[in-house]
């Protein structure tokens, strides 16, 4: 049996018409008998890079005994010219997280997946020390197990304390090797209460690599740091 964590995460492809634009990562989140796809907001729309897809697709497993069996499920981003995703903002500005509700009536009845819920979100980080071991589950540069349609997992640690929002923003720092295509990946830590179907704590949503604007591109290496938005933003985003 495949680990449930790997079935929570999907590869996202964005399209404008029939033209594929980008690859990204996302994961399922369930609440009140509704199912959402979570990713970075800039995957859905990003004005600075002129990224304006009109739909996205995900690969959905449909056979627990044969993970090679998948179907491509398409999700429109607009209805009557209006974006149907939900995005967030806080006192510091836009939050790079968005969700879109999946219509269960059109979702494959035999879909094989696991989903995070509000029970997986930490309500206190007092016991999480800086430098704690975490995982980032996604599709760097679109790379994945193309036969079984499964993501890859990268090690990470939190490079800033989770009890504080870095520079007052709604994210914390991770030290991990990431690439394009990892945007929207879940950042998780093994749950202290194993035994559930998905024994992981959802800490954040990977957004982007960070760099220093004054870095000498020839003398100084990249920082290797990333920002991950705190997962508690999903609570207001998925409310009725």
Lay out the secondary structure.
Layout: E1 9-16, E2 19-31, E3 34-39, H1 41-44, E4 55-61, E5 70-76, E6 78-79, E7 82-83, E8 86-90, E9 93-102, E10 133-138, E11 152-158, E12 171-175, E13 186-190, E14 200-210, E15 225-230, H2 234-237
Antiparallel strand pairs: 1-2, 1-4, 2-3, 3-9, 4-5, 6-7, 8-9, 10-11, 10-13, 11-12, 12-15, 13-14, 14-15
Straight-line distance between termini: 34 Å
Low-confidence stretches: none
Strand order of the largest sheet: 5-4-1-2-3-9-8
- Mean pLDDT, nearest integer? 90
The biggest beta sheet, please? 7 strands, antiparallel
- Beta-strand proportion: 35-45%
In the CATH scheme, what's the topology name? Thrombin, subunit H
Radius of gyration: 17 Å
List keywords for this structure.
mainly beta; 15 strands; 7-stranded antiparallel sheet; Thrombin, subunit H; 240 residues; 6-stranded antiparallel barrel; single chain; 42% strand
């Amino acid at each position: 049996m495949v680990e449930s964590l790997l079935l929570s995460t999907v590869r996202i492809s964005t399209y404008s018409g029939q033209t594929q634009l980008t690859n990204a990562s996302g994961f399922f989140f369930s609440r009140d008998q509704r199912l959402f796809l979570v990713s970075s907001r800039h995957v859905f729309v990003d004005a600075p890079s002129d990224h304006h897809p009109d739909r996205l697709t995900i690969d959905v497993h449909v056979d627990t005994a044969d993970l090679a069996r998948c179907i491509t499920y398409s999700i429109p981003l607009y209805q009557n010219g209006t974006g149907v995703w939900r995005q967030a903002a806080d006192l510091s500005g836009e939050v790079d997280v968005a969700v879109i509700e999946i219509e269960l009536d059109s979702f494959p009845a035999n879909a094989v997946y696991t989903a995070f819920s509000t029970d997986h979100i930490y309500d206190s980080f007092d016991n999480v020390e800086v430098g704690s071991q975490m995982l980032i589950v996604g599709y760097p540069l679109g790379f994945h197990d193309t036969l079984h349609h499964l993501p890859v997992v990268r090690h990470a640690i939190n490079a800033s304390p989770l009890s504080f929002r870095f520079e007052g923003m709604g994210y914390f720092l991770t030290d991990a090797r990431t690439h394009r295509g990892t945007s929207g990946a879940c950042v998780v830590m093994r749950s202290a209460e194993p035994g559930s179907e998905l024994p992981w704590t959802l800490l954040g949503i990977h957004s982007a690599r960070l760099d220093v604007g004054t870095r000498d591109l020839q003398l100084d290496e990249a920082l290797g740091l990333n920002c991950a938005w705190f997962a508690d933003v999903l609570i207001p985003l998925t409310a009725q």
